[in-house]
Amino acid sequence: MGLALQSRIMNRLDGYCAYFFPERRIFLKSDEDTRYIRLRPASQAFIFASLSVFLAWSIVATSILLMDSIGTGNFREQAKRDQITYQERLRGMEIERDERRLDAASAQIKFSKALNEVSEIQVDLISAEVRFQELTSAFEKLKTDHAQAERQKRRLQEQLAALSALGDTSGLDARVITQSEINADALSFLEDALRETASERDELAQAVEKANQNLKEMTTDLQLMEERNEQVFRSIEEALVVSVKPIEKIFSSVGLNASSLISTVRQGYAGYGGPSFVAPDDRADLTYEEQRAHDILATLADLNLYRIALEKVPLAHPLKRSHRFTSGFGRRWGRMHNGADFAAPHGTPIHATADGVVIEAGWSSGYGRLIKIRHEFGFETRYAHLSKIRVKKGQKVSHGQHIGDMGNTGRSTGTHLHYEVRLKKKPMNPMNYIKAAKNVF
Description:
By secondary structure, the protein is of the alpha+beta class. The chain is built from 6 helices and 14 strands.
């Protein structure tokens, strides 16, 4: 019953498909016999549908990978342009900051000099006041003495008048005239000295007022300069945050400790170019602006160390041309696949994903032609199934260097690159590292 039903269904399907796919026979002829294979309409329709689905899937997958590759290239170019822009902006801010610091130092020197001049003028003014008070006291004393002399003169004149009546006035008259002339001369000298002192005091008071006005203007200029310095500091600090945070996100996304990496780079790569920084012995002796400047220099030094670390960690893609992602990290066909596979035309250039040293370059069993590169921080990368190797064992390579060409050597079913990332000999998923840099930038 089941076979009859199946036969009726197949006959009905053949009837539906016969219009588009008529029954065909494929003849196989030999020396002794001739045989043929019958292709039913339903079988032809199934084969055509399968091929159509496979072709459509291939076109869609290739288009997606091609668009992803183009998008990745655009992201990287944009990231490079953004990085150059940030670096130029930081350099411009550093120059402006240095100019502001020089202006602030010059203003501080002028301010200190003005304060010293004001202090000297105030000392002179106080001395003039003391001298004026002394002269005033002396003048009052001379006025008192003059009044006494006048009274004595009147008494003597009275005595003179009395003696004149007796006829003896020569000695007394001379004594009265001499004493009067002495008191008049002293009084005139003190009046002149008092006027000069008062004039000098007025001039010093005017000088103090002018110095205070200059001091007030310089204080205003200094405040404006401090505000401009604050803006420069804030702009630099914001730019540094924008530059450092994405890099820290890269390291954290692949499970790396950014502080530990920076400490390692600082110990082993102190001779690299970039902003140098020497921490002050005692920050308590520094001003607030100096402390901020030292913090900015420290962050710039860390940013340079981050740049070095990025060159040492295998975050880049080994292929820079169009390619297809064909197999990922994980179990495959009952065994562990320790890397990622990328397909592209035969001879496509393969690039080192980070700075390092070639520890193996040659044939290696199922890997075929294989390149192993040892990187810093315990990383190792492997590039297998190559058609040509362009480096030698022991050679130092840099990030992005052309090290080999894609091929089909070893245990391989087609031209492709087998790419591995190992951390302390443990296989890691390479796509996590490639996507980390791609998603951040």
